[in-house]
Structure formats: C-alpha cells, structure tokens
Amino acid sequence: MNYVLDHVGIAVRNIDDALSFYLNVLNGSLEDRYTSDAPGVEVHVAVVKTADKVIELLEPTNKNSPMARFIKQRGKGVHHIAYRVDNLEIAIHEASKNGIRFLENTRRTNLRGRRLIYINPASTDGTLIELCDYLKS
C-alpha cells in the first residue's frame, strides 16, 4: 500500500483572517472553498495549494462543532495530517490487522468525492491522521 501526503488540515478561528498568510506569504492559490454541514464535521473549508503541498484551512461553523471543541481544547494549528492511499478499504483492513484502531464515526465521503476515515490518535501516539482516497470520475 502506498501512503502519499495528501494534505494538512489546519484549525483556524476565521478563514478570511488566516488566508492572507497562506496566499501572500507562502504564495499559495485558493483552489476551493466550501462548507460541510454534515453532523460531526460542521466546518468551512478553504483549500490552498502551494508549490508542492495542499493545506486545508478548517473553520468551525458553530460553537458546538468538533472543530470548535478542538480549538477550545488545543488551540489553533495543525488538526490532522492526511495520507492518500490506493484503496481506502484495503488500507483500513491492512492497518486493522496491525492493531490500528479507527474512529469509525468519521468514515465518510466528503463533498468533493474524497473517501476518508481518521485513525484513532491512541494508535498514532497522539497525532490525528486521516486516510483517504478519491472516487474515480
């Protein structure tokens, strides 16, 4: 199984305030912007592409969302690291055989066709890691 860095998710309080750094200092380009109101997600997302990386800025849509709780507990900053895999089902199966646990309630397909699931941070020494693949068009 190949694991390729797909993106880094950054928790922010306000996307518009945060965008200036990523666009003007890192010379990124705004690739996409959308809102996910799915239960357990509830974020505004800005996808910024730099020369060689993708960054997702994640702003909570309400004060009770998981992202709002994350910012309250840990502050702004890196929320998760996402790795693209060849096939999400196979990656989950292989990792599970090695004792990796997943946050099952996070498995979903996002608005842009990315299938994903988060690994339980207890299995990664505290880092929230997303595994993802993309639906073929």
From TrEMBL:
Do the record's keywords include Metal-binding?
A: yes
Q: Name one GO biological process term.
A: L-methylmalonyl-CoA metabolic process
Q: Where is the VOC domain?
A: 4-134
**Gene Ontology MF: a single term:** methylmalonyl-CoA epimerase activity
Which keywords does this chain's UniProt record carry?
Metal-binding
InterPro entries, from UniProt? Glyas_Bleomycin-R_OHBP_Dase, MeMalonyl-CoA_epimerase, MMCE/EMCE_epimerase, VOC_core
* Gene3D superfamilies reported in the protein's UniProt record: 2,3-Dihydroxybiphenyl 1,2-Dioxygenase, domain 1
Tell me where the signal peptide lies: none
Please indicate which superkingdom the organism of origin belongs to. Answer: Bacteria
Instruction: Return the similarity comment.
Output: Belongs to the methylmalonyl-CoA epimerase family.
Matches recorded under PANTHER family: METHYLMALONYL-COA EPIMERASE (PTHR43048), METHYLMALONYL-COA EPIMERASE, MITOCHONDRIAL (PTHR43048:SF3)
Q: What is this protein called?
A: Glyoxalase
Q: What organism is listed for this UniProt entry?
A: Niallia nealsonii
